[in-house]
Amino acid sequence: MTAILRAIQTPAIQCEAFLFNTPPQVTLEQFLPDYQNLYELHERLNDDFFYVGAAYPGIPWMEALMGCRVFAAETSAWATSFLSDYAQLNDLPPANESPWFRKLVELTTGLVEWADGRFPVNAPLLRGPADIAAAIRGSDRFVIDFYDHPDKVNRLLDLCAQARQQVMQAILEIVKPFHGGYAAGGYPSKLWTPGKTCLYNQEDAAAVLSPRIFERILLPLEDSIATQADIAYFHLHSSCLYPVDILLRDPNYAVLQVNYDHAGSGPRLPEILPTLKKIIEQRPLILWGEFTLDEMTQLAETLGSRGLSFQPVVANEQDARSCRDAFLRLWRNND
Predict the structure, then answer these.
(1) Which strand (E) or helix (H) includes residue 248?
(2) What pLDDT, in 10s, does the model give residues 145-187?
(3) pTM for this model (two decimals)
(4) 282/277 Cα distance (integer angstroms)
(5) What domains appear along the chain, each with residue ranges and CATH number?
(6) Are 244 and 170 in contact (CB under 8 A)?
(7) What does the DSSP assignment read for 166-232?
(8) Which of 6, 101, 292, 293 has its CA 20 to 30 A from that of 172?
(9) pLDDT bracket for residue 17 (50, 70, 90)
(10) Stretch 8-16: mean pLDDT
């Protein structure tokens, strides 16, 4: 079990929304107190999972290095679309020539040096090709383009997948093994693979696309990214679980990860338990989110502990310890 402390302050510039004009505005030194705090919290909890660091995950890195303008406010950052005409793709420079690419490499390299083996470092949250394309084109137009401009949207997706590969390859060349293994994730969920490299994939845009588009168009792009490492895991939301059957047929994903979404944005646990059970019968499962004691009891009774990495969100250290104790008691009673 990994307790993720939601209440920890993350660095934010205190002002109204502003434009990140240049990547130099982001420096490693801005975030060092938070890295130290998170590392020490994990050490004090003595949990089953150690801290996993990455360049600040609040920046939409892939969108920025593909040309989107990035805005930030006190508690969030976001990217705006720019591709009004597909002819603009002809003028798009390679992703690895972007100053945001260089900044990501700089921050990752600096964090590896600063961590000095105390904790593993990996890629920050990097969105999938369809997520990036939707940000570049605008979500509404992106979806419609599959019908009105299929060749053009496929070209955009290919460019986004190539950029994701370039970024991931650069990160894999920087990070170092931790106790003989590598880590992926860290925000929100994480994985450690002894003796093997690992990475995570995500495609939240699947929620507005059909299973047919996901399997025929997106999955080959995802696979091209997954095979860059020895082990890949795929991030899903409880509000969009149709890819599960497709992914379970794909040998490129050794692990599936599900975010348990808040009430109102996704189904409640009893509705998704059969799908979670299907996953854990065929793959290891990472489960992340906020869970009540009753929901934890349902998970223990239905899933057991074999193949499950339970990574709950909690508010503070006291809740983390209470959740850990409840977790151990429930799973011991049901195994």
Answers:
(1) helix 243-248
(2) 999 999 999 999 999 999 999 999 999 999 999 999 999 998 7
(3) 0.92
(4) 9
(5) 4-334 (3.20.20.210)
(6) no
(7) HHHHHHHHH---BTTEEEEE-SS-EEEEETS-EEEEE-GGGGGS-HHHIIIIIHHHHHHHHTTSSEE
(8) 6
(9) low
(10) 39
Question: How do beta strands 181-185 and 190-194 pair?
Answer: antiparallel
Alpha-carbon torsion, ordered 315, 316, 322, 325, to 10 deg = 100
List pLDDT tens digits, range 271-286: 999 999 999 999 999 9
Amino acid at residue number 16: E
Place of tokens 């690419």: 101
Give tens-digit pLDDT for 301-323.
Answer: 999 999 999 999 999 999 999 99
* Beta carbons within 8 Å of 253's beta carbon, 6+ residues apart: 201, 226, 232, 233, 234, 247, 283
Beta-carbon contacts of 315 under 8 Å, excluding residues fewer than 6 positions away, are: 5, 6, 7
Is 274 exposed, middle or buried (CB count within 10 Å of its CB: 0-12, 13-18, 19+)?
Answer: exposed
Return the structure tokens found at 148: 């009105």
Amino acid, single-letter form, for residue 100: W
The sign of the torsion formed by the CA atoms of 50, 56, 60, 66 equals negative
Beta strands 77-80 and 69-72, pairing class: antiparallel
Phi-psi region of 304 (alpha: psi -120 to 50; beta: other; left: phi over 0): left
Spatial separation of the C-alpha atoms in residues 136 and 130, rounded to whole Å: 10
Cα 6 to Cα 10, 59, 132, 170, 261, distances in angstroms? 10, 18, 26, 29, 15
